[in-house]
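TODO from last week: model Flagellar biosynthetic protein FlhB.
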Amino acid sequence: MAEDSDLEKTEAPTGRRIEQAREQGQVPHSRELGSFLVLIVSAGTVWFLGGWFVQRLSLVFRKGLVWDRRAVDDPEYALTRFSALSWDAVVAFWPLILALVLAALASPFLLNAWNFAPKAFTPDLTRLNPLNGIKRVFSWNGLVEMVKAVAKAGLIGGVAVWVIWREQDQLFQLLSLPLDAGLAMAGDMISWSFLLIVAAMFLIVAADVPFQLWQYYDKLKMTKEEVKQEHKEMEGSPEVKGRIRRLQREAAQRRMMSAVPKADVIVTNPTHFAVALAYTAGMRAPKVVAKGVDAVALRIREIGAEHGVPLLEAPPLARTLYRFAELEDEIPGALYNAVAEVLAYVYQLNRYREVGGSYPVPPRDLPIPQDMMVEAANG
């Protein structure tokens, strides 16, 4: 049962899944919304700019209906004149054309579906497979589209029939009215009929848009295993992250070991801890160039012995330095005096190696704050 649930697409699509779908050109869309916007915008444009359209078209018709003998005798002149009249008609309708273009662009914008996906232009020969086309026709989506088409035709057709039935008396009155009055009455009837049809279209859009959004995100649903796999790809699998951390530790350890030969002294526990310190002129305080416990401490001591770095057994100081001093940082101020005694001993030891004399006595009872020493011992 657990395996079956992992294979069921029950999880909402992640942001990455949605982005991948958009890259493939898969975005939510509603044909009904596009049709509704084109219809309402075109009607509104004609409503507000009707007088302007009539004036422009009247000029076009007047030019076109003027008798010109040259148009009969010269075909080229007739073609030139026809082209000019056609351009005048296009200019007359440019506000309507612009409004329709904006309406067509607004439809995907309202669904957050504006998207440029070059992958969508890649030829896909599977779309030419007639079997796939038949499957789409008889699929659940095809059935829904058919139901929508029937419902839309029935609703809009029903509204049209109701309007005609309601206005049948006025339709017959048009035959007996003067031309101006008849045109005015016909215009009012067409306007009210259009408003009713638009209202019916709005009901269709109000039902179609939520359905299209639900269907889009339902198709993108993921299984639990897909979500886990995507999380691994985004964040990195634990195995890969563990290997990266191990490689980083190894690289840091190699850098640390390469600094041991440059140390001035290695303070040891003597076996469990090892901290290498370095101090040069101009530094504000000595800094830790290497530190470690157990096997790492042993390796620090070995490298130090190979390069002649002095070793000092001072367990309390070694533990305290390891606990409170970070790698490549200066030692804490509370340990300045203790480390100063250690460096003085190292200076004496180096002088003894160079010129001889009495062997220096290693420092004992170094001045380490009691609270730091207790915390280092317990930590």
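Done. The radius of gyration is 44 Å.
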